[in-house]
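Trying the structure run again after the queue cleared.
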Amino acid sequence: MFNRRHFLHGLAFAGVAGIGLAGRSHALDVDAMKPGEFLWDLDRAPDGPVVILVSIPAQRLYVYRDGVLVGATTVSTGRQGHETPTGVFTILQKDKDHHSSIYNNASMPFTERLTWSGVALHAGSLPGYPTSHGCVHMPLAFSKDLFGITRIGTPVIIADSHSGPADVLHPGLLLPADAQAEAQAETIMTNGDTAGAPAIPASPVPAAVVASAADRTIYVMENGELTFEGPITIADGPPLGSTIYVMKAQPDGQPAQWVAISYETDSGSKAATPSVDPLHRITADASVREYLATLFVPGSTLLVTDDPAHPGTRSNPGFVVATHPTS
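Done. Tokens:
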């Protein structure tokens, strides 16, 4: 059950602090929350990778850790003419005392930058409808809590609809259930021939990987830099849709597990239930699969999408797959 402070007051500016809720069903509370209200309970998932979901129609933000909902809040996204871009982003920069270089040095506490052109998560006004210049405004107390559990590279999905997280048990070739065994198998399959294969990272960190059906290309981002791209083949079938797969934290020696979240950026459409079918239709050369098998660590993400992931929808350094250019 969610357990949060009952009321927050005495803060620097009204309408940003937020009201914590406690003692009721989180599912009902999320739907019924009034502007400035939020829920937060890390005891539901003490550890694990974080994924942030923003629903523009609902004006809500959801925080999942290791596939479990640990927080939700009301938000205010971009108003008409300054719409918040939809798509998948990663946190590029964090600044708890940020001031805008564009809007008269305005205070933007606990800023988590999503694009270099100015879109970010941060504390801000919450009138109950979209009013920002493209950013996602949150209650001050909630933004502070969120700031404490995210990292550079944490994925943020901004969408018109999305599914809840679903565990993936048989992820297919691109997301091996056992990365080390997969790497060994690939080495055997290729008789140790690694010519043309990308270098294996010495100390892997959570990476952002995108498989784009529009580009027929897979992209790998590490530490905010594009480190690899290569061709993929997609078997005939319906559109892949848009699903992000996040590697969960597992005890040493246990097979890797993944959580999947589907989203939809077409207003009026409903996100499909997460499926492994898109993964099973994507293949790549053995050298690419070997590289990915050794690359993935808890917190790594794979986005499968029909959308392009070319530089026009990216922010460098950092990775963005949006429905329109963001810079």
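The chain has five helices and 22 strands. Worth checking whether this holds up in the mutant runs.
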